[in-house]
Amino acid sequence: MAANKDSVKVAVRVRPFNKREKDASSRCIISMNSNTTTIYDPRNPQNRKTFTFDYAYWSHSDFIKSKDGMLVPGEPNSRYADQRKVYQDLGQGILENSWQGYNATLLAYGQTGSGKSYSMIGNTVNQGIIPAICEELFKEIRENRDSNRQHQVSFSMLEIYNEQVVDLLSKSKAPGGLKVREDQQRGFYVEGLKSVPCESYGQIERLMEQGTRARTTASTNMNACSSRSHMVITIQLKQICTKENLTKQSNINLVDLAGSERQRSSGSEGDRLKEGTAVNLSLTTLGNVISSLAEVAVGKKSVHIPYRDSVLTKLLQSALGGNSRTVMIATLSPADICYEETLSTLRYAERTKKIQNQAVINESPSERLVKELKAENSKLLLKLSRLGQDGRRAEDETQGLRQLLSQNELQIQAIQALWQQHLEEARRDWEQQYADVTQERRMMQSFPYILNINEDPQLSGVVKHFIQEGEWELGLSDRASNVITVKGLGILDRHATFTNMNGKVAINPCGEAKVIVNGAPLLKGTELQHLDRIILGSNSTYLYIGFPSERRDEDWGRLDYDFFQSELAVAEGFDMDKLGDTSSKNGKANPSVLAVFHDYIKVMPMVTEANQMSQELNKGMEFKLEVKNLAMCDSKGHDLEKEITVKVTHKETKQVWVWSKAKFINRKFLMEELYQRHMEEDTMCVDREKDPFWDPVDCVHLGSAHVWLQSLAFCIKLEEQVEFLNSEGSEEAILQIHLVPCTATGEVLGEDDILIDPTELLGRRFDFQIHIIQGFGVKWLKEITDRGVQIGYSVYNHSHIFYTKCVWNHMNPTLEHKTQFAILSVSQDFLNYLQTNALVIDLWGLQAGCIEMASSMEDVTVTEEGSVIIDDLRTSVFCSTMETNGNHLPELYTQLTKLEQETELLRAINESLRKENACLKKQLKNTSTKENSESESKGGNHHRISSSASQPSLLPKRTDSRGSFRRGCDAEFAKALKVFYQSMSSVRRQLQLLRCHRPSEEDDLHGLQLFTEEQTKMLKGFGEQLELCISTLKQDVAAIVKRKRERSGIW
After folding, report:
1. Is 475 annotated as ligand-binding?
2. N or C: which end of the chain has fewer CB within 10 A?
3. How many CB atoms lie within 10 A of CB 700?
């Protein structure tokens, strides 16, 4: 049969905002016009990229919900694309290709939560593509019944997780999953995959429910998330036309791919095991296959297509570049916070549309075999007749031919009877399933039960455990009759007991079993209320449904997986308020804070599971979820952007690591793989380099201290003791530090050099020293002595980080680090830096075996005296010129010359303004003298005028005296300011402590009362000290002014 070249058709669909995005006041970054889709960069709206696809579906807005819950266009001309529209464009084409005898494939690709499952499966009211195809298939079979035409439909459903194939319709599970084999005729196929004959859409619907239930159970048992697995549904349609002696067979493959962000999560920064996870292999290989096929499509020769590198790509070989007509639907998240993932999805889809397949009409392999057997039988019969005509007595040969003929006939009958046999087996299964469903519905109307809640909404509400009258044990064991068997991480053989007596249900944990109800750990038995939330073991989540009499028309949908985790986080003392400022300028929740909170509740159950796996595998690691920069601020005192980190501690050695969220998620995947191998093979043999629980020791950031630089702007020496505060605002150590203004040769400036007006520094050279003397009470060294500390900091816009020497095994380390810095020409920008910024000093903890941090001086320019230059324009331009192409030299030199000219111009303008200011002062003085003379003349005292005029030599003396008064007063002002700034440094420290002062998570009511009292005292002390500082300054200034007035009549 000739092949038809056919490009893969690609559709994109954008969903509405979800609750999280609405709460964060997200902006839509997607626009669509006809078949074009444009994405805007939220950081730079002018940066936009446009893509063209076969279909572009706008499902973000312009819709309403009908009375029966269907989402439909809001107006007749609305551009909203509902489920029906998507099916008509994509699903009907797939079904038509199948009727013609072509293989057809539909791939759903996109970020987790972008709407893949909704488009593919949908819900009861808003039917997705897969159920719509199945329903329409049997509708057409019913409408086109013909005695000369038979239809055979079979259904299979599998899941690929961690490179293992799981048959979702089989009750028995093969260790390590099913094997993928290759056949010359069939290509790649799954050996032993159950394919169930179906006679109606209702049967397929029940099979999908059965597969979803198996997928949920597997997800719970292996603590795996459905977003990390691929689901493949195959519907095989065979059309037998007896009249034409023709049989056509086609396979419809419906593939729901894992979340596309899994390709990126493993590429976590700095993770040595970033390529190690098999969870990520299938999607990565699929991307490589699509890229290779796109290169082939544009004419590139000798391109290797890596189909064999993963299980998924083996099974999709015919769908990608092979014998299939293929459609991909790429689902998009519209929110600005998903920009990177959405752009990645669009680029992926653009590559896919270049792929060309070669589809042919398929003849059934079994029918082909029947034809071959019948042809062989005809030849055998002809041969037998010839033997009889020739009168030969070849009885042995005749007997052999008749046996072969008989075997062929039996094989033909077996092939034809096989379908009927499978159909009968399926009917018996239908009867059993129907009885089970009827029994379940009857029990739902009679007994309370617990209902599973899954991270994937499609898998929630699938598993029900009924609590009948009496006492029921819950756990792994299934040996007794009154047992509710639940599997999952941290579930014990006897985990808890349910008691259903007198219309009340109670739950009681067994021994040390972990049971959480409504966010609170359960230590003793408690009575359950309708819609209570239960967490068993590490993270097996269930919703308790009470007796039928307790049930109302409640909205159970709000009690989703995120609700469980949010409730647990709040109960453990973590909520939005703990993250600081939770409201933005428009009064809504701060998007960045909300994003951190959602990240926290997403990672929190993963941390619990990692701790459980570490315990069961005897790894000795403890994982703790933390918020980086929770109580830290930048050099201007503004809160730093918060992010989720995981602190890892070895229980025996007390070694510490801090992993980013991305790195931890990647490691969690690898831990699951290791745990799965341990459960299947009961072995933990793994090289240390490949062990996801192990990492080389590294330096740990312990905290930061802030030293405000304002005193340097007035050339005042600052002697400080500042606290190092960790992420949560707790004190880690005390640091003694001096900031010393000095001359170029390092001579410390005295009180006579103190400035009243910092602008006097403009255009001048300014030197200062940072002298880090000693640390006190370092908690890092108090816990374990075999540790060290180092301190690092950077100054102004200089990119270089300066480190002190490392000090080991001393709680009060003597550092004695002194560095002198020089500003060759003080600019207004540097002056602003001194007046508004703090020097941020980082405290680093070192552990045995880690590499000390060193300051490389290669990129540092120093003066002849040895001062580090932090504003040398010529040096920075020279360095950048050396790094760039030599062709840019003239351009950079021109820019430098222009900057120098502008600087000279500004200096000239400044000098002119100074002269003009001096002239105005002189005019003002003359005017004042003239007014005094006129007032005296109006008094009529001629003698005083003459006397005054006869003593001109006294005026210069008076002027000199007033100048000396001013110099003396300036020095007094400088001393008063110095005292004020030193006292204000203490006030700033108290303010920082107040900001970080929070109640303990374990505090009860009494503890909170004590916290309130302590907070009140701190506020009172802060207010008194602030008032004292200002009052002292006022008194000093008033005294100086008074003395000036006493010394001079003008003052």
Report:
1. no
2. N
3. 18
